């Protein structure tokens, strides 16, 4: 599932992707707002829309995987989500693992 935010001129200015991972669980795997519009609350609007889309499709849990430890504070303060668990992966090991997998395919 994905969502898009468009300007009044029809240009895509933000988007997100929700990926079902388990029964009743979806992961917010990507969220983006074009750089000139950062800091204007559009990311918050996208997350709130993602929550509503997930709910309307029967999901009860939304997971957010990130290498950024401040995302939990952002979700708590700007969106009002209070049950946030941060499970940071070692970003370097993740990317090394991805390269190793790609190397085997070639």
Architecture overview:
Helix 1 links the parallel strand 3 and strand 4. It is built from three helices and four strands, in the order E-E-E-H-E-H-H. Residues 84-106 have low confidence and may be disordered. 9% of the residues are buried. A four-stranded mixed beta sheet has the order 1-2-3-4, covered by helices on one side. It has one domain (2-105): 3-Layer(aba) Sandwich (Aminopeptidase). With 106 residues, the protein is α+β, with helices and mostly antiparallel strands. It has helices spanning 42-56, 71-79, 91-105, and strands at 2-6, 12-22, 25-33, 61-64.
Keywords:
4 strands; single chain; four-stranded mixed sheet; disordered C terminus; 106 residues; alpha+beta
How do the helices and strands line up, and which of them pair or pack?
Elements: E1 2-6, E2 12-22, E3 25-33, H1 42-56, E4 61-64, H2 71-79, H3 91-105
Parallel strand pairs: 3-4
Antiparallel strand pairs: 1-2, 2-3
Number of helices: 3
CATH class: Alpha Beta
The CATH homologous superfamily name equals Gcn5-related N-acetyltransferase (GNAT)
Radius of gyration: 16 Å
Q: What profile does the largest beta sheet have? A: 4 strands, mixed
Global structural class: alpha+beta
Measured as a percent range, the helix fraction is 25-40%
- In the predicted model, the low-confidence regions spanning at least 5 consecutive residues are 84-106
Domain unit count: 1
CATH architecture title: 3-Layer(aba) Sandwich
**Binned strand content:** 25-35%
């Amino acid at each position: 599932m994905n969502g898009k935010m468009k300007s009044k001129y029809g240009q895509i200015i933000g988007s997100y992707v929700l990926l079902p991972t388990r029964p009743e669980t979806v992961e917010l795997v990507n969220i983006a707002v074009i750089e000139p519009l950062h800091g204007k609350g559009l990311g918050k609007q996208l997350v709130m829309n993602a929550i509503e889309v997930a709910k309307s499709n029967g999901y009860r849990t939304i997971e957010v995987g990130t290498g950024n430890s401040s995302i939990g504070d952002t979700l708590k303060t700007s969106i009002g989500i209070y049950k946030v668990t941060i499970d940071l992966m070692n970003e370097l090991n993740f990317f090394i693992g991805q390269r190793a997998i790609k190397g085997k395919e070639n």
